[in-house]
Known about the structure:
The complex is a heterodimer.
Chain A: H1 19-38, H2 41-58, H3 69-98, H4 117-125, H5 128-139, H6 144-151, H7 155-179
Chain B: H1 4-13, H2 20-31, H3 46-72, H4 77-92, E1 100-102, E2 127-136, H5 140-156, E3 160-167, E4 173-181, H6 185-193, E5 197-207, H7 209-235, H8 240-272, E6 273-281, H9 294-346
Parallel strand pairs in B: 2-6
Antiparallel strand pairs in B: 1-5, 2-5, 3-4, 4-6
Amino acid sequence: xxxxxxxxxxxxxxxxxxxxxxxxxxxxxxxxxxxxxxKNWAVAEDLTSETFEAAFxxxxxxxxxxxxxRAWLLAIARTTALDxxxxxxxxxxxxxxxxxxxxxxxxxxxxGEGLSPALEDGLRAxxxxxxxxxxxxxxxxxxxxxTARLLGITxxxxxxxxxxxxxxLEERMRDHDVDA
Amino acid sequence: xxxTPDLIHELKVSRPTAPTALRARVREISAQETARAPxxxxxxxxxxxxxxxxxxxxxxxxASAGVLGLTRSGGTTQAFRExxxxxxxxxxxxxxxxxxxxxxxxxxxxxxxxxxxxxxxxNDRAQRVSATLTVEVPDSDAVSRxxxxxxxxxxxxGGHVVSASVxxxxxxxxxxxxxxxxxxxxxxxxxxxxxGRIVSQQVTIExxxxxxxxxxxxEASVRSQxxxxxxxxxxxxxxxxxxxxxxxxxxxxxxxxxGLRRGISGTHAEARMSTIQLTVVTPxxxxxxxxxxxxxxxxxxxxxxxxxxxxxxxxxxxxxxPFALAACAAWLGRRFYRRRxxxxxxxx
Lengths: 180, 348
């Protein structure tokens, strides 16, 4: 399923579609993005719920003339994820101080069905920022401009980050093949 | 071995899909849509408000400038003209400096008359009287007539023309310098003022009596010295050197005496005749005081108000600038910090 209809060129007079339709259409995109970002399906699910709750509250403010619903939802998802990263970082620091670090939550099969174990490992080895750009540019097929706007960086930086991420993945998979 | 296109293909075909439980949860959230209040919450969109407020403020500024300009521009052009000219008379009737006196003459804007209010030079003192008059006549033909009348009047009063220049055309003008006997100056001014509407006027009297008295005293002294030396040269036996010195002295004194006589004579002549400079103009001609019409005055006043508004806005901006800069710096700093923090978080 792909959000072709919602990403079509916008008309100036266009009206925001019903939230339910948008949510149904873009749920997989938001979930996939958050899954790649957090590499943890449980966290991704929680954050996806939070994202749609926040989006639902803000839906009246959404202006179709200023962007697609997908870009808007992904921006909210990103903010939600960054908040979680901050909270998680604080929690980890507290636990480190208390010397009671919790074992990492189970994230087996985190990146979806059908991925080879080598690619799963490779994705897990990337940084969150690298996985994010892979998710947006490759998995969700956002163009370079839209991704750059979402991440707050230049399109060139997006291309650089993506190339680096793919090169790392390739390398990891090559290593995996050698090990095998 | 896996290539990048293969990687991309694999990533694309293995897109994550949301679990059923999550889909149900999101559907629940969406289902609340119908239960929401039909009225949107009142919000204050800053950008839209600014989009309206800025042009509105500009419109108010221009409108207030226009209204104030219209109000302050006063009544008719004639009223403004009279007011302006009244102000001019006040200026020209200001205090005199040194030996200068300014006469009261028919008021600007008046056509002729004013004889009763005029004061003249005193007859028992030598005075230099000069007057400058500008009169406005309706058209170019009237300029020629006025110039001719002025020349006739001058001759009739026993005066003469020093210079005359008359230009005709769409904006005719004439410039005349005439000299009339001091005793007739009042009559001349009144007569010349009657040639048209008085635009500006100034009569100046400079006292020459003190100068004349000094010249006459010096003349008497020189005469006396010459008489004494001459008597001595004639009556006393003098050596050659003394005689030569005295004769040189007499020569010098006689030369000085001739100069003094010329000076006394010139001063008397100056005091006998007054000089009048007359300019005759048509409305709009160079040199004429063309009173601005109502529209011009309204625009002037409106521009003044706008200038004041700009000054106030500038002052407010100057006062606010440090706070705005501080706020801007804080915003940029926060943004930079957040960006760095995001990078750090996503680098994990």
